[in-house]
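in:
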């Protein structure tokens, strides 16, 4: 069996990681616990498994860069397929605003695209959440969310705690009773716009979580950091939040045991279910951000243990 962890450690660049993931046959099988497949059917099956475990699901299509324009069409297919299998009620559709044209197309076109997805999702009992964007597009993202939320107030938006501006954005969105998905995120950003130190990002995540809990926001806490999950629970209790008022969200295949514990304790838990031909880039990005945690997870998927 290929030692996938050893292969990854020898790869010096992200591009080489992407190439190797596509070329090593075992990589697809190793990625299956995290990305169930490339087809809509694989996503629907994963949602069914997630719901059977008492958890909600958020489905994210992963396009390849040269074919992002199919994102809207595939997302519509996801809505239809989930509805056909009675899996749509309460399920979330995560969609990349950049794949829908944010930063490239005119704002009216992007608003129309997002509005169309929200309309189709609402008719199936689903919600829509916009995923995160680089710092230079955050203003456009929030303007897009505000415009579409006039008709679809349940439209969610993803913010990343590493950006300096996110605390102010959380405070503003909490005052608007918005649904906010909060990620931790460690990205290389331009100097002066983001925290670079991991400990500072952790503290920013806690501050943002407190603002969302204390305000009127509907938080979706997207983190695989067990410490931050515990702190979020304490902040929710301090804010006298009912478990139905906020959601813990984990990536598929990560902290499965902790997710089950939270469900057993009465918490609301959602699992991010990514699928699509862009799975290699998704895994490679995860490696770049969390190489140790992914190494352990992939090792487990390959049936070996890491020291």
């Amino acid at each position: 069996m290929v030692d996938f962890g050893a292969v990854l450690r020898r790869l010096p660049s992200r591009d080489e990681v992407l190439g190797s993931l596509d070329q090593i046959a075992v990589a697809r099988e190793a990625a299956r616990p995290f990305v169930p497949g490339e087809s809509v059917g694989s996503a629907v099956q994963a949602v069914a498994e997630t719901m059977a475990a008492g958890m909600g699901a958020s489905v994210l299509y992963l396009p390849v860069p040269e074919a992002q324009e199919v994102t809207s069409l595939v997302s519509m297919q996801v809505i239809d397929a989930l509805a056909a299998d009675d899996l749509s009620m309460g399920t979330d559709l995560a969609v990349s605003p950049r794949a829908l044209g944010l930063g490239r197309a005119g704002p009216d076109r992007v608003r129309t695209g997002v509005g169309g997805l929200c309309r189709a999702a609402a008719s199936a009992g689903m919600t829509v959440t916009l995923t995160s964007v680089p710092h230079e597009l955050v203003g456009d993202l929030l303007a897009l969310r505000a415009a579409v939320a006039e008709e679809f107030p349940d439209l969610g938006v993803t913010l990343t705690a590493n950006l300096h501006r996110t605390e102010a954005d959380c405070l503003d969105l909490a005052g608007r009773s918005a649904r906010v998905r909060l990620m931790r995120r460690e990205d290389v950003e331009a100097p002066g716009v983001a925290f670079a130190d991991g400990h500072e990002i952790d503290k920013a995540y806690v501050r943002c979580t407190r603002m969302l809990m204390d305000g009127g926001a509907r938080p979706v806490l997207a983190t695989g950091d067990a410490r931050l999950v515990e702190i979020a629970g304490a902040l929710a209790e301090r804010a006298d939040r009912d478990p139905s008022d906020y959601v813990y969200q984990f990536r598929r295949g990560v902290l499965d045991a902790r997710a089950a514990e939270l469900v057993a304790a009465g918490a609301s838990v959602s699992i991010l279910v990514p699928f699509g031909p862009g799975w290699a880039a998704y895994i490679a990005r995860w490696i770049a951000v969390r190489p140790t945690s992914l190494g352990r997870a992939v090792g487990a998927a390959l049936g070996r243990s890491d020291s």
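note: Residues 1-34+290-307 form one domain.
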